[in-house]
Design a protein that fits this description.
Elements lengths: L1 H29 L6 E3 L17 E2 L7 E2 L7 E4 L1 H6 L5 H5 L5 E3 L9 E3 L4 E2 L3 E3 L2 E2 L11 E8 L3 H4 L6 E7 L7 E9 L3 E11 L4 E13 L6 E16 L2 E15 L6 E2 L6 E6 L16 E16 L4 E21 L8 E28 L2 E22 L6 E6 L13 E22 L4 E18 L9 E21 L2 E12 L19 E15 L2 E13 L1 E6 L2 E5 L2 E13 L4 E14 L30 E10 L4 E10 L2 E2 L7 E5 L2 E11 L4 E8 L7 E6 L2 E4 L4 E9 L1
Parallel strand pairs: 8-11, 18-37
Antiparallel strand pairs: 1-21, 2-3, 4-10, 5-6, 6-7, 8-9, 10-11, 12-13, 12-42, 13-14, 14-15, 15-16, 16-19, 17-18, 19-20, 20-21, 21-22, 21-23, 22-24, 24-25, 25-26, 26-27, 27-28, 28-29, 29-32, 30-31, 32-33, 33-34, 34-35, 35-38, 36-37, 38-39, 39-42, 40-41
Length: 730
């Protein structure tokens, strides 16, 4: 498999070079006079860490080194300094100050985000531009920065990325010495240590080693996390035109799966506009923490080679192999608290093994025809993703393990997970080709146009389960064409206005490749279309302000009519406005954050049906219903002020309006109230080698709901908490 992919990539590279040579020879023979073409000298990509809070470039957004002010898309970059200053511990933490993104619970076992109301995604995560989509919790011990790309990103990433995507940029080995030890300790027995060591081996090669270990508890009863990881990388520069990066990672995450608290029914057991059971009780675990272990083990290898030819062509090839083994088990509230004070608990065990092998090849060619500059991109992606998944229920079947009193909602029995409820395998093969042209017409006018074609083939096998010896196989092939186009006007060099169009598709197999069934296999993929107008202003070299208005539309959404019949509808739309700021206001004052307004709604009635095809009006979703976990207003702002060379302080505020946990139906809806939370930090620099910081979160001890998975899995926010971090450079 690997040899075939490499051979295909090399043949594409040499094929394109051969075509260029042949065309040059033919031109000489015919003595045709062409306009003068000036080749612009290529350069190897620059992956140096960003200083401060304000990133100026992104490779991921266009697959080329491009200034953010020249990209017609809303992009937020969480830099390494910001990650450190905020003492970021999770993906939730990383995006809490990013406009246009809200975290979701992820059933207590995975990262889950909602971009622009497009729906919760667990698959739109990338590492150095390559898909990293297994359902797990990610760490940032080896991350230089996080790029948050908003709007459909089909031209860059292919399937998914409907409302946005997260790309983590790895720390890379370089020739400047790095020796940093980080120790952290805090509330709820938080203990964490990380080390970052790097240096040159010789003039050609350099190494870097990142490692982490953590053992922490939580403000939630019985919840804990244990994790450790190691990531060695090597950079090789045999010439000034060639760069090779090699890396490997082992990471293990163990924690208790926490699905929060349920909602509580109103009078008459009404389930309309219900609220969380008791926001003030942030400790109580509904179910059994001891019976809810979660473990993910990741082994990954990465390779990148980049070469800049003298003829103006740059070739870059990336390969990533990753093997993920995941196990989780949970006992949780599967319904609301009833008027009699009881709540139904459910339980299951889930096992997933996934192997990803993905190879990308990019060809970048800079040239100038007359007064017009072009940055051309041609590329392809080959991928194979194999997934095995099994789900187990208790002996006898069924998810429910009985009702308990909500005042003491601990399940005290034992469960034997012997009933195989689901046993399936999926094999996905991806073949994609893409092309893009970034055009500079003049100092004031630029454009970008690109298109990507994905052939996405899935073979889905349902294997025998308890009570059934049936094996069924389904095949589905989607051919998806994802365009992007944008026009940029720059009246002055540090100010741009843009308009853009982009779209992407989500195959019926779902973002985790496990949703295919007989009905879905015959449906077209879902389609997301984004129209956006925006402005970007580099107020100074260290301060940027951005604004965007957008309309994101979801088309071809599945509407289930019965167990054997579905239809498609264009039934969802989000309109919004985003304002972002990042960088230094003064030499002492740094800022990051923004404001978002979102109006997300269902645009036509969605009628519900039972499995036998009869109507179920109680589950109808009416036109005008708000989208799940899409607050109308969010505001966040982090400020750091350096008092002098030794002392600094920071103050942050996070605020959002109320939102629904799930899309309201005719008879069920749960409201998550809005909140405002304040954070702070104190920084002390004792010397060039030793620093100390103390981070304080939720200064006013606000009782609030953080996020949810559905109407009955609601996460209470943390009370006032703090941790201290010591950073030693040796």
């Amino acid at each position: 498999m690997k040899k075939r992919m490499l051979a295909t990539a090399l043949s594409a590279v040499f094929g394109i070079n051969g075509m260029a040579v042949a065309e040059t020879a033919d031109t000489r023979k015919e003595h045709v006079t062409l306009d003068e073409v000036e080749v612009i000298a290529p350069a190897i990509s620059d992956t140096q860490p960003v200083k401060g809070y304000n990133a100026k470039k992104s490779t991921t957004a266009t697959k080329t080194e491009t200034e953010l002010i020249d990209v017609p898309q809303s992009i937020s970059v969480v830099t390494q300094e910001l990650l450190e200053d905020q003492s970021v511990q999770s993906m939730r933490d990383a995006v809490r100050y990013v406009p246009g993104v809200t975290s979701s619970q992820g059933e207590g076992n995975r990262d889950a985000l909602n971009f622009r109301g497009s729906g919760v995604t667990t698959g739109d995560f990338y590492l150095d531009g390559i898909r990293d989509d297994v359902q797990t919790y990610r760490d940032f011990y080896n991350v230089d920065r996080i790029e948050v790309l908003k709007g459909p990103n089909g031209m860059i990433f292919g399937r998914g990325a409907a409302g946005g995507a997260i790309n983590r940029v790895s720390k890379e080995a370089g020739w400047d010495p790095v020796r940093e030890l980080t120790l952290s300790s805090g509330a709820y027995d938080h203990k964490r240590a990380a080390i970052d060591i790097g240096d040159s081996i010789n003039d050609v090669a350099a190494f870097r080693l990142n490692a982490v270990v953590e053992d922490s508890e939580s403000y939630r009863d019985g919840v804990e996390v244990k994790r450790h990881g190691i990531n060695p990388t090597f950079t090789i520069r045999p010439t000034d035109r060639t760069k090779i990066v090699l890396g490997a990672e082992y990471f293990k995450d163990e924690h208790i799966g926490d699905r929060g608290m349920p909602s509580v029914n109103g009078p008459g057991n009404s389930r309309l506009k219900t609220r969380a059971y008791d926001i003030g009780d942030h400790e109580t675990f509904f179910g059994n923490a001891r019976l809810s272990p979660n473990e993910t083990e990741t082994v990954a290898f990465n390779a990148m080679i980049e070469h800049a030819f003298e003829n103006g062509l740059t070739i870059r090839n990336r390969t990533r192999y990753a093997d993920y083994d995941k196990f989780y088990q949970n006992v949780f509230a599967r319904g609301p608290v009833l008027n009699n004070g009881t709540v139904d608990l459910g339980a299951y065990r889930d096992e997933t093994d996934r192997e990803n092998l993905i190879n990308q090849t990019d060809l970048i060619y800079n040239l100038k025809t007359g007064s017009v500059e072009h940055k051309l991109l041609l590329g392809m992606e080959l991928g194979k993703q194999d997934t095995d998944n099994m789900r187990f229920l208790k002996a006898g079947g069924g998810e429910s393990v009985g009702f308990v009193n909500a005042a003491d909602p601990t399940f005290t029995g034992s469960i034997a997970f012997t009933n195989i409820n689901r046993n399936r395998k999926s094999e996905a093969d991806i073949t994609a080709f893409y092309a893009q042209d970034q055009i500079v017409f003049s100092p004031k006018w630029q454009a970008i146009i690109g298109v990507r074609h994905d052939k996405f083939e899935v073979e889905h096998t349902s294997l025998p389960v308890t009570g059934s010896n049936t094996t069924t196989k389904l095949d589905a092939t989607d051919n998806m064409l994802s365009p992007r186009a944008g026009l940029i006007f720059k009246p002055i060099n540090n100010l741009s206005f843009y308009g853009s169009y982009s779209q992407t598709y989500v195959p019926r197999a779902g973002d985790q490749l496990d949703s295919l069934n007989f009905v879905k296999s015959s449906l077209d993929p879902e389609k997301f279309i984004n129209h956006e107008l925006g402005a970007k202003w580099d107020v100074s070299p260290e301060l940027s302000v951005t604004a965007a208005i957008y309309k994101l539309k979801r088309e071809k959404a599945e509407v289930v009519l019965s167990a054997t019949e579905s239809t498609l509808a264009d039934n969802q739309e989000t309109k919004g406005f985003e304002l972002g700021v990042s960088g230094k206001i003064t030499s002492k004052w740094s800022m990051f954050g923004g404001y978002t307004y979102q109006d997300g709604e269902i645009t036509e009635d969605i009628l519900a049906f039972n499995s036998n095809g009869t109507r179920n009006a109680s589950n109808d979703i009416h036109k005008g219903s708000e989208l799940a976990q899409t607050p109308e207003h969010t505001f966040s702002l982090w400020n750091r002020y350096d008092i002098n060379e030794m002392w600094g302080v920071a103050l942050g505020v996070i605020s959002r309006s109320e939102m629904y946990a799930a899309v309201p139906t005719a008879t069920q809806s749960t409201v998550l109230p809005g909140y405002t939370r304040y954070d702070a930090a104190i920084f002390a620099k004792f010397s060039e080698k030793l620093r100390l910081q103390v981070n304080l979160e939720n200064l006013t001890n606000k009782e609030y709901v953080l996020d949810a998975h559905n109407n009955n899995n609601i996460t209470p926010g943390s009370p006032f908490t703090g941790r201290a971090t010591l950073i030693y450079n040796f």
